[in-house]
Amino acid sequence: MALMITDECINCDVCEPECPNGAISQGDETYVINPSLCTECVGHYETSQCVEVCPVDCIVKDPSHEESEDELRAKYARLTGEG
Question: Where is the signal peptide (predicted)?
Fold first, then answer.
């Protein structure tokens, strides 16, 4: 499942540089996560790095982009060219 940033985001800029896939960018109002690039850090780290650094806990699982661990690993392989 990809992650999403809620409207509680305070635009603190700490999440964007932590994303190994470049899935986080500045949106119109808050930062946004591109679900096509988000692997919840599967393949890179044990935990989602953006969630770890977010000071307001506004990064949650996106219910409209459900993916299994295997699907996230496959996306990681496609994005990195591994596998």
Answer: none
* Contact in structure between 18 and 47 (CB atoms under 8 Å): no
> Max CA-CA distance within the chain?
37
CB within 8 Å of 58: residues ≥ 6 apart = 5, 6, 7, 8, 9, 10, 30
Q: What angle do CA 66, 9, 6 make, to 5 degrees?
A: 30
Helix (H, G, I), strand (E, B) or coil at 3: strand
In the DSSP assignment, the letter for residue 44 is T
Q: What is the pLDDT along the chain (83 residues), one digit of tens a residue?
A: 899 999 999 999 999 999 999 999 999 999 999 999 999 999 999 999 999 999 999 999 999 999 999 999 999 999 999 86
